[in-house]
Specification:
The chain is of the alpha+beta class. Helices cover 23% and strands 28% of the residues. It contains four helices and seven strands. It has helices at residues 14-24, 42-45, 107-121, 137-143; strands at residues 4-8, 57-63, 68-75, 93-98, 126-131, 147-152, 155-161. The protein has a four-stranded antiparallel sheet with strand order 1-2-3-4, sandwiched between helices. β6 (147-152) and β7 (155-161) form a beta hairpin. It is globular, with a radius of gyration of 15 Å. 30% of the residues are buried.
C-alpha cells in the first residue's frame, strides 16, 4: 500500500498540473499518444490558462518523499467559454490524472473525494466532468455517483449533484 497526501496546489505545482492535463487526455488502446502541441489547442489549454481565476481550485497527490503522483482541479466556465463537460456557469468542471505507475491504487478516488468535499464546502450544487466512454475512469466516476447527462464530441458529460 502506498502512502501519500493530497494537498492544495501551489504556484510551483503548475508545471506538474500542465503535465497532468496532458495525461488526462484519453488515448484509446493501440492509438499513438497525442502530440504535446495538443496543449496549445485553446479548447484544451483553457482548462489551465490564466490559472487563479475566481473558483479555480487544484489539489496535488504526493508520496511521503514529496514526489507528485497525481493532480485534480476544478474550474468554472461560462456560456462563452465552455469546457467539454460544461453544464452551467455555477457548476465547476473537474479534470484529473494520476501518473501511470500509480493508477489503480486508489489515488484517483481519493482525489475525487477531496474535490467533492471542497466543492460542498464552497456551497456548490455539484460538479461536472468530461470523459471518453472507453476510459476506465468511467467506472470510478460512476462509483462516486456521477451520472451521464449528455455528450460533447466523442466524450460523455457526467455530473455529480450534491444533496
Amino acid at each position: 500500500m502506498i502512502r501519500y497526501d493530497i494537498r492544495l496546489a501551489t504556484d510551483s505545482d503548475m508545471p506538474f498540473i500542465w503535465e497532468m492535463l496532458y495525461l488526462s487526455l484519453h488515448v484509446p488502446d493501440g492509438q499513438p499518444p497525442f502530440p504535446r502541441s495538443v496543449l496549445d489547442d485553446p479548447r484544451i489549454a483553457h482548462y489551465l490558462t490564466q490559472w487563479g481565476r475566481a473558483g479555480d481550485c487544484a489539489f496535488v497527490a504526493a508520496v511521503e518523499r514529496g514526489d507528485r503522483i497525481g493532480a485534480g482541479w476544478m474550474r468554472l466556465f461560462d456560456d462563452s467559454d465552455q469546457g467539454y463537460g460544461y453544464v452551467s456557469h455555477d457548476t465547476p468542471e473537474l479534470a484529473m490524472a494520476v501518473v501511470p505507475e500509480y493508477r489503480g491504487k486508489g489515488v484517483g478516488g481519493a482525489m475525487l473525494e477531496r474535490m467533492m468535499t471542497e466543492a460542498r464546502k464552497r456551497g456548490l450544487r455539484g460538479i461536472s466532468l468530461s470523459v471518453d466512454p472507453g476510459n476506465q475512469a468511467v467506472r470510478l466516476y460512476r462509483r462516486h455517483g456521477f451520472e451521464q447527462v449528455g455528450s460533447c464530441d466523442t466524450s460523455w458529460t457526467m455530473v455529480k449533484l450534491f444533496d
